[in-house]
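Regression test attached.
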Amino acid sequence: SGAAGLERPQLVLHTQQALNYTLFDCKWVPRSARLLCLGSAARGTGVLQLYELRGARLALLREIEKPKPIKCGTFGATSLQQRYLATGDFGGNLNIWNLEAPEIPVYSVKGHKEIINSIDGVGGLGIGEGAPEIVTGSRDGTVKVWDPRQKDTPVANMEPIQGESKRDCWTVAFGNAYNQEERVVCAGYDNGDIKLFDLKTMSLRWETSIKNGVCSVEFDRKDIGMNKLVATSLEGKFHVFDMRIQHPTKGFASVSEKVQKSTIWQVRHLPQNRDIFMTSGGAGSLHLWKYEYPAQRSKKDSEGAEMGVAGSVSHLQNVTLSTQPICSFDWSPDKKGLCVCGAFDQTVRVLIVTKLNKV
Amino acid sequence: MPVWLRDCRWRQSASAVYLSLPVPGVRVTPSNIFCTDQYLKVSVPPFLFEVFLYAPIDDINSTAKIGNGLIFFTLYKKEEAMWDSLSLASDNKEKLQCLRQDAVLKAHEKAKAETEAKKVTKQKHKRYALEATMKLEEAERKRIEELKEKERQKVTKELELWKKQQKDAEKQNRVQQELLPQEVEQLKEKKKEKMNKTRISNEGTSKTRLQPTKGCHGSSSMFSENLKEEQLPAPRSAATIKINFTSRVFPTPLRESRVAEEEEWLHKQAEARRTVSADMAELEDLKEEERNPDWLKDKGNKMFAMGNYLAAVNAYTLAMRLNNKLPLLYLNRAACHLKLRNFHKAIEDSSKALELLTPPVPDNESARVKAYVRRGTAFCQLELYTEGLQDYEAALRIDPENKTIQTDAEKIRHVIQGSMQDS
């Protein structure tokens, strides 16, 4: 398999850095070779570290400590000049920080009663159109959308009906933001529910259940009409939904793949090619996948209603980096193939994926 | 008795002996010929030929040609000398026998030596082959490593290049930003001038000419960012979407549910409902409603509530005759027996109820707690305090928050400790 194997993309470990705190999220700072690590120090405080990739090592530029451990962060709703970071922490607070002056947040709100598990931003970085918005999903079962120009109250709130038992929301993602009005939020919960909220009509557009808790959802692009959605779950399964055609009863067509017995913690699409995505697993491995569209993306069912046809997923490459789960993963939006991942073994690793042009 | 072949003809030269032996009518194969350095035998049943050679020969290089009913031996002498005769002259049979045996032994040893030599060469060849494959694999591995290393270096170089580009771009950005306020004013003035010019020119020319905003088109991409900010929509008007979650018979996600056990419990319950006692003879006297175990159970419950414990027991017993798989019947009858101070029967019924309440699932939690408490009470009334405490603790394990059970368990513990102190 020597020669044939070398024609596939390779996942090359470029450098790694051992940390002395639990790492929950890592993100590239847009338009730079800098990356951000977010996590929780042993004494129960939050840590933000800014590293720069210099040659074959990571140089620590800044370390910032905050009162509460930080679970997740995003640059999605900020402009390219400002590059403010939005974070969700263990206390349910949403903060937006200017990393040049991080003592006081630019925006702060106690958005949720419990830990914010997941955050996403849209409308920033010169991508797409419309207002910049941030969505947070929390263990208190609610999903809230915030506009940094509006203080204290969210612009949309998806919460359980009064008296209904609540389920943890584990992941959120924006999508369909192809013009100023349209936007959807997809949320995954710990009981396997996936719900799609349409923010233009303020209604629930679609929901389904995949039996196992949903760890991560992501649209292949936030700023185009909904094309594909990948949802990963416990027990090593992920589902790819074709979001172009919604059938009135059957919803969206999907194809699913089982990797290994372990949880798939994250899915991230390659910014430069929306059909390639990476999944990170509970066994410390990364898997690179490519989606292939079917010959016909739609077909008619017995009553003549249109329904989508799911394609197929092919496995390109995988690598095992750690014995602990890889809980976060981010592609660099500027350099194709450069990516960073953080694992629960307190190590952040920078990898380069080669030969992505030939896939 | 073998037939001796005697009519052989031989001639010799200084270095070799040529012997021709006719073997009429039989096929000779190499295995029929046995030759050592001083003994030659040909045995083709029924024919036999042997000769004790005058002098030693080189038995490895000597040849025998078989064909046409004749064997032609070419025996190379060890020493170049002319032999007086082909064979040793000897009449001594024992000596001949000895010589024969020696010859056989020699042949054996030669064979052994040959096999040894073969083994050794085989091993040598194996080792050589192994080393060769190892070398090949090593070379292959090195090649792959080198390819990987080359990739890494290439990628690192690209990365460095890209970083440089980033830095340069940032520097440019910064420089441009410094110029920005000045440029903005300059361009604003230019815009105004342009607008004035076009207005003036339009007034002089035809009215149908369109008025493009030339100033805006000429601006650089940086300014489009500013314009964009002015065009951002207002924050959304706040709204709430209410949601509910997927319901299940048992509301837990797959990982939390003990699906197998829950299914078993449901199945058991369903079956229990269907069980109808075969003892129909006596039951023919019963009225229609008295044949329904649920109706009887309700009747029993009412009797219990009114304090008519014997009647309740009868109702439950009758119900059990119709369907002996309903755990609640045993549970309730146990309560009656407790009131009637039939503690042994109460223990029996509680135990039967617990048996039927397997597998333990959240659905039958409260029933199990009751069963344990009732049995525990019965044990304590019979002064079997240790067993009683065990049951109370089992109940606490299911329902740790129940204050009554906690206080009662404490009381039992005191009693046990008190009795231990006394004895």
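Expected vs. actual: identical. The helical segments of chain A are 2-5.
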